[in-house]
UniProtKB/TrEMBL annotation:
Keywords noted in UniProt: ANK repeat, Repeat
Species: Strongylus vulgaris
Keyword Repeat attached: yes
Database matches in SUPFAM superfamilies: Ankyrin repeat (SSF48403)
ANK repeats: 75-107, 108-140, 142-174, 175-207, 210-242, 244-276, 277-309, 312-344, 345-377
GO biological process: innate immune response
Protein name as it appears in the record: Uncharacterized protein
Annotated Gene Ontology cellular component terms: cytoplasm
InterPro entries: Ankyrin-KH/SAM_domain, Ankyrin_rpt, Ankyrin_rpt-contain_sf
Organism domain of life: Eukaryota
Length: 394
């Protein structure tokens, strides 16, 4: 009996509900009435502030009137969901002992266990599991489990506990992401290691239209160490998304993830792979103007004059010039790119730079000897298109 209940008549001391076992060291306290606005307000205040003194000052009439599962109108929160969200283990223990609905769902369809896991409150998660909370309960809209959300939020201690209790490591949420996919996407290396050590499928693919792997998610989001772990554990470096044929390397180049690109090249990623768009990794880097990525690819023997994009006949140089990426253009020319290559419309890099009004790019191309008189398929020269677009500088 704790300091509060030891001074109360035995008839007023709340007894644990049948079948529910209090956590050792967390003695049941007295809870304020939630049926009145002031009672529920004080309870919410206690939850948010972690103030257990407010809980122990209830009158006998308040205790008698207390409805342990009374929910708010706004979010369908109960005292238990609020306590779990804020990680107040002692209050959770009290409410569970008073028979609170351990599987109640708030407006988002989150159970107390899911809320505690999302918040990273390991002791609350353990308390709920010890009292029979459903470990595989799913949120109603996203179909996430406690493990899914703990992985996506980087809650290492909670993930470790849930795995030790047998949580399904291959569960897929509504987006078809597994816990490993979610951890890789967030770059949570320790969690990635935990899941792999627990036997999670390293090359799992989402069943959605993308079909993206954990390695692709880590790479495209720039998580170098998570990418390294997945590669060391045997992830397929050249696996492709079924619908667009992107690989981890093309995705990393598209996002300008320099460190990840360097790592993937060390593991011999295919530097000339073409996605469904027809773009190579170098072309993806040219599109974003990522010079450091471009240099890495060229150092790894990417061809600056590889066959152009089938649909548009664009090269890495015309792509970079069209976007006005002067430094990338300069790098490509120095690395031997054909300066007067034409795309499907007959446009050279210089023509495209003039069309876009990219003065520095124009100056660089002219300096390197680009033909200023080459016309497009409509017989328009770079100078003519510059005038037509109003790109005139005296």
């Amino acid at each position: 009996m704790n300091a509060v209940t030891s001074q109360m008549p035995l008839s007023q001391v709340p007894a644990p509900s049948p079948g529910l076992v209090p956590t050792p060291g967390l003695a049941p306290a007295v809870v304020p009435a939630a049926t009145s606005p002031t009672g529920f307000a004080s309870l919410r205040r206690a939850h948010s502030e972690g103030d257990d003194l407010d809980i122990t000052r209830a009158t006998a009439s308040q205790r008698a009137a207390f409805n342990v599962d009374k929910a708010t109108e706004s979010n369908n929160d109960t005292p238990l969901t609020l306590a779990c969200s804020n990680g107040h283990a002692q209050m959770v223990n009290v409410l569970v002992c008073r028979g609170a609905n351990i599987e109640h769902r708030d407006k988002k369809g989150f159970t107390p266990l899911i809320l505690a896991a999302t918040g990273g409150h390991r002791d609350v998660v353990e308390l709920l599991l010890n009292n029979g909370a459903q470990i595989e309960a799913q949120s109603e809209r996203t179909k996430d489990t406690a493990l899914s959300l703990a992985c996506s939020g980087g809650r290492k201690d909670v993930v470790e506990l849930l795995l030790s209790r047998g949580a399904n490591k291959e569960h897929r949420n509504v987006s078809d992401y597994t816990p490993l996919s979610l951890a890789a996407s967030g770059g949570y290396v320790e969690i990635v290691n935990m899941l792999l050590n627990a036997g999670a499928e390293i090359n799992s693919r989402t069943g959605s239209k993308l079909g993206i792997s954990p390695l692709m998610l880590a790479a495209m989001n720039g998580h170098k160490e998570a990418t390294r772990v997945l590669l060391e554990q045997g992830s397929d470096i050249n696996a492709q998304i079924e619908t667009n044929r992107n690989t981890a390397l093309t995705l990393a180049c598209f996002q300008g993830r320099t460190e990840v690109v360097a790592l993937l090249l060390q593991y011999n990623a295919n530097v000339e792979h073409r996605a469904k768009t027809g773009l190579t990794p170098l072309m993806e880097a040219a599109n974003g103007g990522y010079v450091e990525v471009g240099e890495l690819l060229l150092d790894a023997c990417a061809d600056p004059n590889t066959a152009p994009v089938p649909s548009s006949r664009d090269t890495a140089l015309t792509i970079a010039a069209d976007k006005g990426h002067e430094r990338f253009v300069d790098m490509l020319v120095h690395r031997g790119a054909h300066i007067d290559a034409r795309n499907k419309k007959g446009c050279t890099a210089l023509w495209l730079a003039c069309h876009g009004g990219h003065l520095e790019t124009v100056q660089t191309l002219v300096k390197h000897g680009a033909d200023v008189d080459l016309q497009d398929n409509r017989k328009m020269s770079p100078l003519m298109v510059a005038f037509r677009k109003g790109h005139v500088k005296r």
